[in-house]
Every structure is written in structure tokens, then in C-alpha cells.
Backbone:
């Protein structure tokens, strides 16, 4: 048994394992994935008996975290051939990959879990619940406006539109630049879809992704105020053409909230340094962190911030601790998925009243927008 990171020119060796384990994925999608995504991703494998038997892939995204940008990697294609399961291969791959990301001082990694219980033992925690609608109602409408699929040449306009009107709503998101949208066009097309642009009098007023493999799926609709009727018309037109009902993901109009993205904190000091203190507050506290996998995070941290730091969090190590937090509990807290009081009730967490008060002054990263699929 050998665990190693493949060279880029070796990435194709993992396609056969993908095809065996994820047999639902089409040839068109895998052609896209292995042409585009494996150009710059990282693939960790375990080889045994002369072949790749287990793998884990890391796809890089430029992630905006408040005012800073960092490369963070999306964990995908965690797979082991059936005859080689129950040998701890997934854990070995995860630990190796997380250590390399920590060494590069990447603040966190993220994934969409097949099941929470698979990744919770490695201190992954949910940080983002996506709004969804599984019962989208078609409408008959003569709403003015045009709706056409985007071409590669539209990527610049799309990126400018999203950056101007929407990115200010989020604290944590994958940076939407022209390259991001060019890749997304290919990705959606590989799944029998595209990016649909909504225009009014020739002006771009909205867009959404769509795919149609096992039914019509609409993802991440973004449109200007007042143009929801045009969005509903655009989706309804697709439903009629495709002869399919539609599910809509990452839509503010969705009434269902589905936990979607789990995060694992990697370089804790770096993540803390991205954060802010609530305006008007002065924060100063210290706490010990327990991380049984990335033990370099197991330190005592002092975090401070206020008007003198322009509300930015400053981080340093210290010797005196007011309490104890596990790295998993800290993820839930920093991303605003759990309150300070909820965090205090977690196993192995100890918070004094003063520490609770001070941690409550953090401006948590609760406005997360991570809808990436691969």
C-alpha cells in the first residue's frame, strides 16, 4: 500500500476508479471534469496491487473571506474500490491532504458530504444551509424580456454584473471572475444545461445555472429587484421545453433550508485574522484550542480587536487561557452556525462567562454563499 500525491500528468489514472464508484456520472461530465478540473487540482491516492484503489481530490477556488482572498480547496471524489474498503484509506487520505493544506496556511477546506457522520469525526462542521424549492410552480406569462444561454464571451459581463450587485451580500464566497463563469458554462453544458441570461431592453438583469440530467435543476438564480416575474417566466419556459418539473437551489424564494456545505478549519490563526469585531465593541480574550488531527492548531490564542485595529481581529499566542474550544466547535461558532451558548454546551468545551461575552463580540462569518458542486 502506497499513499502519494499524483503528478498532474498522472491525474487521468483515477478516472477508471471514478467510473466504477460514481457510475451515475455521464461520459460528457467526466470528459469535462478530467479536461478542465484536473488541470490544476490535486489528487491523493492509495495504490495497491498495481492500481489506484482509493482517492481524494482537491479542487482549488479563490475564496473571499471578508476583505481577504485565499485559495481554499473543495474536497471531492472521495472514493475507495469496493474490495478495498474498511481499511481506513479515507482517513489516511484526509489526514494527508489536510496536513498539506495546513502547511500552505490555507484557512479552511470545504465539501458537500454524502452524510454528515462520515466527516464529523474529522472535525468537519456544517456552516451553510441552502435555500431550496422542490415544488417550483410554472407560470404562463407575457413578461417582457429575453432569456438566452450565455456564450463564453459573456463571462466578463456576467462577472461584472454579479460583483456590482450581489457580492456585497456575502462574507464568504467563491470569487466570481470571468474565468469562474467560463468554467461554469462548460460544466453546465456537460450536464445538458447552461447559464441562462435574463435581459430587459438589452440590459442584463439576472442569470441562473441549469442542468438537465435526471430532471431539470436550477441553481443560484441572481436577479435585480423587480425581476422575479422574468425569472419565473424563464424557468417556466425551460420546464415546458424540457418537459420536466424543476428543482431550484440557492434561491431566496426557496422555503426549504437544506444543510449543504461542511467546513474543516485548517490554519486557524489565518482564519481568525480574516475576521472582524462588531462595530462599537472592544474585544480581548484568550482560549485554548484542541485539534487532535492538526495538532499545530492546539495552542492558546489571544484575540483582540476594536477601534484601534479598525475592527479587525488580531491574533497571537499566549499562556493564559479563559476556556477551551475544540476545532470543530470553533468552526460552528466562527461561521455563525451555532451561538456562543450552544457552543458552550458541546462536549470538551469550557467557556467562562467573560469568554462567552467576548466571543459574542465577533462578527461571525454567517453570510456564506458556497454553492459549488465540483
Residues:
Amino acid at each position: 500500500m502506497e499513499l502519494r500525491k499524483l503528478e498532474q500528468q498522472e491525474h487521468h489514472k483515477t478516472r477508471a476508479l471514478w467510473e466504477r464508484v460514481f457510475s451515475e456520472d455521464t461520459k460528457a461530465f467526466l470528459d469535462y471534469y478530467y479536461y478542465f478540473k484536473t488541470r490544476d487540482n490535486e489528487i491523493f491516492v492509495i495504490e495497491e496491487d498495481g492500481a489506484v484503489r482509493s482517492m481524494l481530490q482537491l479542487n482549488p477556488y479563490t475564496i473571499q473571506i471578508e476583505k481577504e482572498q485565499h485559495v481554499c480547496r473543495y474536497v471531492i471524489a472521495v472514493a475507495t474500490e469496493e474490495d478495498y474498503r474498511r481499511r481506513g484509506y479515507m482517513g489516511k487520505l484526509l489526514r494527508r491532504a489536510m496536513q498539506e493544506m495546513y502547511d500552505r496556511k490555507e484557512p479552511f477546506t470545504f465539501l458537500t458530504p454524502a452524510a454528515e457522520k462520515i466527516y464529523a469525526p474529522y472535525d468537519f462542521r456544517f456552516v451553510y444551509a441552502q435555500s431550496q424549492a422542490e415544488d417550483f410552480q410554472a407560470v404562463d406569462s407575457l413578461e417582457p424580456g429575453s432569456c438566452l444561454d450565455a456564450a463564453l464571451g459573456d463571462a466578463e459581463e456576467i462577472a461584472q454584473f454579479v460583483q456590482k450587485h450581489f457580492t456585497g451580500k456575502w462574507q464568504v464566497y467563491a470569487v466570481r471572475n470571468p474565468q469562474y463563469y467560463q468554467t461554469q458554462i462548460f460544466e453546465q453544458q456537460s450536464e445538458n444545461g447552461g447559464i441562462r441570461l435574463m435581459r430587459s431592453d438589452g440590459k442584463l438583469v439576472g442569470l441562473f445555472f441549469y442542468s438537465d440530467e435526471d430532471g431539470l435543476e436550477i441553481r443560484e438564480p441572481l436577479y435585480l429587484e423587480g425581476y422575479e416575474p422574468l425569472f419565473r417566466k424563464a424557468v417556466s419556459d425551460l420546464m415546458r421545453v424540457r418537459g420536466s418539473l424543476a428543482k431550484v437551489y440557492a434561491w431566496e424564494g426557496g422555503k426549504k433550508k437544506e444543510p449543504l456545505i461542511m467546513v474543516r478549519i485548517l490554519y486557524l490563526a489565518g482564519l481568525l485574522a480574516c475576521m472582524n469585531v462588531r462595530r462599537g465593541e472592544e474585544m480581548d480574550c484568550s482560549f485554548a484550542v484542541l485539534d487532535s488531527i492538526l495538532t499545530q492548531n492546539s495552542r492558546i490564542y489571544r484575540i483582540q480587536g476594536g477601534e484601534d485595529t479598525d475592527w479587525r481581529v488580531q491574533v497571537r499566542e499566549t499562556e493564559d487561557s479563559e476556556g477551551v474550544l475544540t476545532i470543530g466547535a470553533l468552526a460552528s461558532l466562527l461561521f455563525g452556525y451555532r451561538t456562543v451558548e450552544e457552543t458552550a454546551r458541546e462536549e470538551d468545551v469550557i467557556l467562562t462567562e467573560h469568554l462567552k461575552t467576548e466571543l459574542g463580540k465577533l462578527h461571525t462569518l454567517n453570510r456564506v454563499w458556497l454553492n459549488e458542486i465540483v
About this structure: The mean pLDDT is 97.
